[in-house]
Amino acid sequence: MSDFLPTGIQLTYLVAASLFILGLKKLGSPATARNGNVIAAVGMLLAIAATLLNQQVLNYQMILLGLAIGSAIGAVAAYTVQMTQMPQW
């Protein structure tokens, strides 16, 4: 039973990587791009959750600080960048 957590974390990383790849593939078409973003976001959520469950992580404050800074930058960029600046969309 003690080996379940590391194995579960590794499997979660594998699923997260697969979701990233699938999400990137769906970003190639305007019809599936929104779904691709959601799939990649779920993969990122799984990767973050697996990292926070890892018992070898020693500094959770730095992870949460990085998450907060990245979220703030992403939110500002999402509201300030005009869609005309992204021709691939």
Low-confidence stretches: none
Number of domains: 1
Query: Overall pLDDT, averaged?
Result: 86
Percent of sequence in beta strands: under 5%
Radius of gyration: 16 Å
Oligomeric category: single chain
Q: How many individual β-strands?
A: 0
Overview of this protein structure:
The protein is mostly helical and 89 residues long. Helix content is 73%, strand content 0%. It has one domain (4-85). It contains 3 helices and no strands. The relative contact order is 0.11. The mean pLDDT is 86.
List the helices and strands and how they pair.
Elements: H1 4-26, H2 33-53, H3 60-80
Task: Give a brief outline of the structure.
This protein has 89 residues and is an all-alpha fold. The chain has helices at 4-26, 33-53, 60-80.
Task: For this entry, give a set of tags.
89 residues, mainly alpha, flat
